[in-house]
Design goal:
The chain has 153 residues and is mainly α. Helix content is 67%, strand content 0%. The chain contains six helices and no strands. Helix 1 crosses helix 3 and helix 4 packs across helix 5. The protein starts with 11 loop residues before the first helix and ends with a helix.
Length: 153
């Protein structure tokens, strides 16, 4: 996983920062210390990646959402007030990055429409359709909904 945290090398300074608590790291980042942000990223990378992966169910998309989340968090860390833990704040940012990506992914999924049946008269049902035949019709109905909605407008 090529995450943004790997872009910051571990140095003696960052090693001493590793021992710092989260509020101390946040203060350091708010003062412009990018190495402190790298420590936060390393500390919470697994949790944040798993959150994005659980939403998107795709490794590459989860990595993208995570990196976009890190960028957004770094840009807006000055506004972090400390009302919540930094882990909660970072998680919310990653979720906010992942959800639009999920909606976009769903919109881009291909919908397969079935060919219309030939113009043959259908036999009259002798009894009510069985549950299994109605269940089989649901995907076809859902696939036809966008076309039906367009024709009624």
């Amino acid at each position: 996983m090529g995450h943004l945290a790997e872009d910051f090398p571990v140095t003696a300074l960052s090693t001493s920062l590793d021992a710092a608590d989260d509020p101390g790291l946040v203060r350091q980042v708010q003062r412009g210390n990018a190495a402190a942000f790298a420590v936060l990223m390393r500390r919470y990378n697994r949790r944040l990646y798993r959150t994005a992966r659980a939403i998107l169910r795709d490794d590459a998309a989860a990595e993208d959402a995570l990196q976009e989340g890190y960028v957004a968090a770094y840009r807006h860390i000055g506004g972090f007030r400390g009302d919540a833990q930094i882990a909660t704040w970072l998680t919310r940012i990653v979720v906010n990055q992942a959800l639009p990506a999920l909606r976009k992914k769903r919109r881009e999924q291909v919908v397969v429409l079935f060919d219309e049946p030939p113009d043959e008269p259908s036999p009259e049902p002798t009894s009510a359709p069985s549950l299994s035949s109605r269940t089989a019709e649901k995907p076809m109905l859902h696939a036809s909904m966008p076309r039906l909605c367009q024709t009624t407008m």
